[in-house]
């Protein structure tokens, strides 16, 4: 047997045993597992940012366990099982890669993404027409390209996905210089609202952030990852200030900004 299949079957056997014999595992539902799955996903993200491949391996194992757990519960509900899950993703990958499994020609990754979004939209339209899934629609209604963006995503990640999906159907800027000008336009609008003491300041801040996310996309930079790296950098430098000022018998809350700045500049060299 392929060792990959053997290892996966071993996991499924253990999952069955735990579900039937362990008091904790027996009590879990999809709803109770959901927050744990989100936590595990963030832990995987942390491991990736840290470049800790051993930890990445461990966190992937935790996520695969969760997948097996949901599939086991789905089987108990007579809704689906792990075979349905695996066949479903295999069939979707084949459908959405016609340049591999069909006769479609593509020239670059952008055309691959565009095909993916187009096929996904066609699938949603067919599902809506036949009533296979999704909310009730009128005969003329069409599913939105943006329906696939989860409502519960963090705002920055949601902005990235919204922009990616819009780009998939051709609604996008042509050059990064245009996006850069849009960033400046939004900054000018924010400044005007701030100067006027307008109630629209929060809206304009949102517009600025959305445009910066867009510009990062044109630079092939993940803005969420970039911001997280900056968060970590700030934490490291701030904690350096705390440690070093404490060694000198000082406390941050009792220091002048100039004094703290001196420690901050030292932290930037560490």
Q: How would you describe this structure to a colleague?
A:
This protein has 270 residues and is mostly helical. Among the domains are: 3-147, MazG-like (Helix Hairpins, Orthogonal Bundle), CATH 1.10.287.1080; 225-267. Helix content is 73%, strand content 0%. The protein has helices at residues 3-21, 23-27, 30-50, 53-76, 82-95, 98-101, 109-130, 155-168, 176-195, 201-218, 223-247, 257-267. The model has no long low-confidence stretch (mean pLDDT 91).
CATH fold assignment of the domain at 3-147: Helix Hairpins
CATH-derived architecture of the domain at 3-147:
Orthogonal Bundle
What is the 3D shape? Answer: globular
Helix content percent band = over 70%
State the distance separating the first and last CA atoms: 52 Å
**Main sheet, how many strands, which sense, barrel?**
none
Strand/helix succession: HHHHHHHHHHHH
Number of discrete helical segments:
12
Count of strand segments: 0
| Rg | 25 Å
CATH level 4 superfamily of the domain at 3-147 = MazG-like
Unreliably modeled segments: none
Q: Return the CATH class of the domain at 3-147.
A: Mainly Alpha
Question: What is this structure, in a nutshell?
Answer:
It is built from 12 helices and no strands. The chain is mainly α. Among the domains are: 145 residues, Orthogonal Bundle (Helix Hairpins), CATH 1.10.287; 43 residues.
What layout of secondary structure does this protein have?
Layout lengths: L2 H19 L1 H5 L2 H21 L2 H24 L5 H14 L2 H4 L7 H22 L24 H14 L7 H20 L5 H18 L4 H25 L9 H11 L3
Summary tags:
270 residues, mainly alpha, Helix Hairpins, globular
């Amino acid at each position: 047997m392929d060792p990959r299949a053997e290892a996966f079957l071993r996991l499924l056997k253990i999952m069955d045993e735990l579900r039937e014999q362990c008091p904790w595992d027996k009590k879990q539902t999809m709803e109770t597992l959901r927050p744990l799955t989100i936590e595990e996903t963030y832990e995987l993200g942390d491991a990736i940012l840290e470049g800790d491949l051993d930890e990445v391996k461990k966190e992937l194992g935790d996520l695969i366990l969760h997948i097996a757990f949901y599939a086991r519960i789905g089987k108990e509900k007579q809704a689906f099982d792990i075979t349905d899950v695996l066949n479903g993703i295999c069939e979707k990958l084949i459908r959405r890669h016609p340049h591999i499994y069909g006769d479609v020609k593509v020239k670059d990754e952008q055309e691959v993404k565009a095909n993916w979004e187009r096929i996904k939209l066609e699938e949603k339209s067919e599902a809506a027409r036949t009533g296979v899934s999704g909310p009730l629609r009128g005969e003329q209604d069409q599913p939105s390209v943006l329906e696939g963006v989860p409502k519960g995503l963090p705002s920055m990640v949601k902005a990235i996905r919204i922009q990616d999906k819009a780009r998939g159907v051709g609604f996008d800027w042509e050059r990064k210089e245009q996006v850069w000008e849009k960033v400046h336009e939004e900054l000018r609008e924010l400044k005007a609202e701030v100067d006027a003491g307008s109630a629209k300041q929060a809206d304009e801040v949102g517009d600025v952030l959305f445009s910066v996310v867009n510009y990062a996309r044109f630079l092939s930079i993940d803005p969420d990852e970039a911001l997280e790296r900056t968060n970590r950098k700030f934490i490291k430098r701030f904690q350096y200030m705390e440690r070093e000022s404490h060694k000198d018998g000082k406390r941050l809350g009792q220091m002048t900004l100039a004094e703290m700045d001196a420690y901050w500049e030292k932290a930037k060299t560490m």
